[in-house]
Amino acid sequence: MITPRFKLSQDENCLFVTIHAPFSKVSDAEIYMDGTDFRFHSNPYYIRLNLPGEIIENDEAKANFDAETNEFKITCPKVTKGTHFQGLDMLTSLLAPKGKRSVDSKGIEVLEETCSEEDSESDFDWFLEQKIEEESSDLPANGSKYGFGLKHSGLFATLAEELHQVVDVKNPDNQSASERRIERLEQEKREFNAEHYLADFFQTDMIDPLIEYLPSSRIGEEWTEAETILLKTLTNKEYLLDHDQLQSTYLGLVDILLAYCYDMRTTMSDPNVESAWTIAKISGTLSWLEIFTSIRQVVDCFLRRSLCFPLFRNFKLSIKAIEDASNILKEGRTSVWRCFLQIHQLFNKSDPRYLLNQLYIRDYCIWIQKSNDETLASLSQSLKSMELTKEDVTLNLVDLERAAVNLMCYSDDSSEESDLEEQMAHLSLKKKSASSAMPIDLQVAAEAARMSSESDLDSDDDSSSEESD
Prior knowledge:
Blueprint: E1 5-10, E2 14-20, E3 30-42, E4 45-56, E5 62-66, E6 71-77, H1 91-95, H2 160-164, H3 177-191, H4 194-202, H5 208-212, H6 225-233, H7 243-266, H8 275-282, H9 284-288, H10 295-306, H11 315-331, H12 333-348, H13 354-367, H14 373-385, H15 397-412, H16 420-425, H17 434-437, H18 440-452, H19 454-468
Antiparallel strand pairs: 1-2, 2-6, 3-4, 5-6
């Protein structure tokens, strides 16, 4: 049997089910509705929905077939008039039989995600760092844990070659989360290119349109065919997560969403062949198997990586991506879910990044359907309330810019006919070869600022390491 494409809508009195069934025989169609159970069968299509509210088959129930669209349009009266059915866009949950549970690859039943009253999601303080269990004890016998819900370990022993093409961490099975974080910070310090940053700071012809771009909301849009096909492959798995694991899972969601929003803004919502690489590289979760313990840690990681690795490296642009992520979180789980479904599709087309789907994204696509909209809204507000400055990035951006501007002003003293803005306008800076295209005075400025603040950077990283420990 084939599960057809379908969509649900409602008013105060009825639930409306639209089913696309182009090869069915209308006269053979069978429809059943009782309580939370809805079934449709018309060979070769079959669908059974476990609804979030009760319906009843009475005189108001009706079904029509539209020959132009090849769609059955079914009206299901609600048992209680005026009731609003929640989660009608969570298609995977609706397709799962009531009471069904999934079994993971190790044969362990995954039970319902629960928290006691004192550990409810409303108690989350996103700015208060939580202690990760692994950081306070020796590594488990089977190695460090990572992936969604920390359910994976030892994968690099069997998939080392493929995984090392995807992630930056070298030895995750034998490193704690705090050790991985120290190496990540060292990599970002080492990979930060002052010349490239200054190029994007002074010449913004290509960056300004990206900053001004207004992403459109997809609230109310119908599911695409590709999304629907993916949704039907997702299982109705539920997860056993304690309070701290649940918090780190939400923080990992924000980290991945920030990387996605950066790519969507820089491609103006038209992903390209580099999009999968960009998302995987900017996200600390995906590139370093990072386990975040506070929202500040997430944002600091995003800002640093967005200024170290992608084509465009501009602080204002990164701030705009944070605003985009805040807006998506505010819209709720459906909008967040759509983002992760698109990430899943991008990774599936980017070998071997499909492994990141198995490590993180597929589980997120399942789990988000039952995430808490209020919790997502609180994350949105946390991002919105943060006052972010260039000093927070700890890459010496302010001194770097000041040194460059001072040198340009110094050279400007010998020519009263041109001002600083005119000098900036005549800079010829190329992103791919920033060093070679950089005017010699800016190269000197970058090197001078880097040398003068090297000790400051070292002390910042040392303090970060101590906090991680």
